Structures are given as C-alpha cells and as structure tokens.
Amino acid sequence: MAKTAVARERLFALRETIAKLEGKPVPGLAAAEQEALGEGGFRKKTKRSPRFSFHIPALDEALDGGLPLDGLTEVRTPMLRDAAASSGFALALAAVLQRQDEEEAHGPGPILWIADKVAAMEAGIPYAVGLKDFGLRPERFFYASPRKLEDALWLAETAIESGVFSATILEVRGNPKSFGLTESRRLHLRTKASGRPLFLLRQAGEEEASSACFRLLSETVPAQARPLPDGLMLGGSIGNPVFRLTLEKSRNPAPLSFLLEWNPHDRRFFPIHQSADSRFPGELAAHSGAQLPASSDRPDSTQEMGSLLAFGRAS
Question: Using CA atoms, how far apart are residues 95 and 169, in angstroms rounded to an integer?
Fold first, then answer.
C-alpha cells in the first residue's frame, strides 16, 4: 500500500508539472494557488526565515540573504587533513551567533560540538585557550564524542529540539551509509521547528544529495600580513585565518568562490583578494639560493641521434 501511495503521488506531481508547462489548470495547482491567496484575493506574505548575514554584498546575494538560522548548512572538506578548514569556519560562525545571543539575551548561549573520533585523532580536539582567542566563550562550549554515528544523530536531534544552544555542530567523517538523505531531512525539519541552526561538517567526504540549504567547500589559504594601527604591516607574526569558500549547492548555476578572513577580535568576516605572493617585499624563502641565469650552451645538452651505442656489442 505504501508503494502504491508513493507511485500515485509521483504521478500526480508529474501531471501537475506537465500541465504547468502546457499552461493548463489542474486541481492540484488550483488548490495551491487558493492556499497562497487570502480571502480577499491577495497573496499571503510568507514569513522569511532568519538569516546569518556576512555583511558582504556579493556573498549575501549568492546565499539569498545569508545562511539560514533555522536550517541545515553543510561544510565539506575533500581530505581529512583539511579538517581544520571546515572546523575553523564553523567555529567562527558559532562565535558570531554566540555574541548575538549575548547582546539580545541575558548571556551568551552555549555551543555544542558533536565530534567524530577519527577526525579528532587527525585534527585534535578544541582547546579552551584557543577557543577564547578565536572569539568563543570556553565556559559556554560543550564537546561530545559519541561512539556510534546513531548516537551522534540522536544527540544532535535532541540538542536542536531543546532550543538551548546558539549553534549545534555535527561532525561526520566521509559518506556513511547510515547518514543519507532521510537522516539529513529529519535534522533539517528539526532545525525548522526549533529555529536554531545546525552546521554539518563532512570531513573527507564527497558531494552527495542532502537536505542542506547550502553546501560549502572550505579550504585553507595562507594568512595575510597583520596590519598595525599606523598602517604598516607586521612581519614575522601569525595573521588571522583565511578560508576559501566555494558554493557547491545553491541556486546559482555555477559554483562561486570567496576568500574570507576571520577577525576574532571584531568577530566578523572580511573579504580579501588573493595576491600572487603573500610574502613581504624583499622577503626570501627559508632556504634561498643564488639566483643564477640558465646557461644557453650547456655541455649536458641532448645529443643528436646517431648510430653510436653506449656499450659495445656482445657478439
């Protein structure tokens, strides 16, 4: 019976699609139009979901106003050794949301990180001092490492339904069979109901179908030079982290790429432009050698082909 109902639903949807393309009215389309219109014939205004704005016009426009705060957002890395790229970006988002809750509510909201054990062995676990330098409140940061993926999914759903956390971060390694389109759909519906965001970190995973509103590929980029108050650049220091974000899933027909620098003091992202060489003027490499021009008539140049052999014949 269930298969018959699914087949009937697909048939009705296909008929409505064909009728819409041909410009013919069908009961399904008429009912949807009547639901969208009010009693007076005016179209109802749908409530727009809250968004996380980067305050970068090009990026916010590509994200239809920003990342949804009541939906699922996926951040992917191609290899496990690049886990810090997605983790750092997700923690930066959590820091901004935690500060917003601190300004709007009585105190900063907690952050929940549900980690994968293998990814933690490769990239490490959050460090309290590092979290504070990154812009987070360590005393309001919770870290969990379940043994099984099923336990991690249950914990994520429970955390989202509680509505207590400013942001929930779920870390998944690769593309496990037990976490597919059905599981991501259930998590997305939980976020819609609670109005709290969920950031899915897919470490060393491939692109696959999911219910995430957006999927971002996060990659690391060399940090920029640190500017001083007088306008000069400070050499020999560690600059703010930079992320290369590529929109893999969105309404845009082609992937878009952006370079964002995270400022933990201001808790804001700033757009940057990648230069050809990130080193300071006159700065040499750690093991620099003499810069000599290539010789034009080298003795080891390729000889012309001939009948001479390198070794004598055996017979």
Answer: 12
Q: What pTM was computed for the model?
A: 0.72
Q: Could you give the CA distance from residue 129 to residue 167 in angstroms, rounded to a whole number?
A: 20
Beta strand pairing status for 214-221 and 72-76? parallel
Q: Name the residue among 266, 265, 224, 267 with its Cα closest to residue 243.
A: 224
Helix 181-194, helix 149-162: angle, nearest 10: 20
Q: Name the 3-class secondary structure at 213.
A: coil
Cα–Cα distance measured from residue 187 to residue 314, given in angstroms and rounded to the nearest whole number: 76
The overall longest dimension of the chain from CA atoms, in Å, is 106
Provide CATH 3.40.50.300 ranges for the chain: 51-227+234-271
DSSP 195-227: T--EEEEEET--------SEEEEEEEEPPPPEE
Contact predicate 264/133, CB 8 Å: yes
Among the listed residues 240, 287, 220, 253, the one whose alpha carbon sits nearest the alpha carbon of residue 86: 220
**Over the stretch 118-154, which tens digit does the pLDDT of each residue have?**
888 888 899 999 999 999 999 999 999 999 999 999 9
Superfamily of domain 51-227+234-271: P-loop containing nucleotide triphosphate hydrolases (3.40.50.300)
Give me the amino acid identity at 30. A
